[in-house]
Description:
single chain, 288 residues, alpha/beta, D-Maltodextrin-Binding Protein, domain 2, nine-stranded mixed β-sheet, three-stranded antiparallel β-sheet, 43% helix, globular
Amino acid sequence: MTSLSRRAFIGGAIVLAGRVAASAGAARVVSAWIAAALVLAVATGAQAESTVDAVRARGTLRVGVKTDAPPFGSIDAAGRPIGFEIDLARFFARVLFDDDRRAELVAVTTATRFEALRAGRVDLLIATVTATEDRQRQMELSEPYFMAASLLLVQKASGVQGLADLVARPVTVVRDSVQAHDIGILQPRALVSAVGSVAEGVDAVRSGQSDAFVYDDVVLLAVAQSDAALRIVGRPLAPRPFVVAARKDDAQLIRWVNGWLARMRRDGSYGEIWRRYFQPFESHLVGG
């Protein structure tokens, strides 16, 4: 897929996703959207070989992942990285080296991930990167691998039921996240403050410093599931696709990623990983 056609596809996906609502109709729209992604996914080929061969020659695939955003990425009790995106990174390493331990996982945050990519410390970002037109101009983005929306996390006893209740009330977002942009449009009268991590946003709500924390749906659903003092309110906001990102001159590597994402969907390995992490939240999500 050329850079121009891929940009058109991503742009179309963003427009379509913005029309998705949490309803039975949404499931049909998302299913059709995923089917389109499968049709348009680019198979691996000779054009992708130069970048992939350079990674193979080095002996490791360096991937920026999050460790503060379960179930996409976190650290378990034994100190090991776990999560959906971490499993994707290991899958790609297994394809390259027949050894998923060759995935060199580099911990990044929402604020540090793009600098890590630009500086060449990682080959790929698989770190809840939302597809936007601005990001498409700055880097290479893969076909989508997940559809995410935003939700509101509040205290269990809070009277907040949605964005309409946040006029002149403190709301927290993660700095440089899409939510930092969205909340200014969706509820411009909220008193927005930015923090550096998901943990800080959750703590702001838990401590009462903020009336709501706005972030990705699955992450907040996992937080609320593990903390009885917190709950999710409102409807899914601004659904958009998550994508793998590479540097602008690494389009060949993204074509290789696209080919394997398509194969994963065809052979069922994608669905297996998806169910492992998201099945408990499936009824609350806008799509896969």
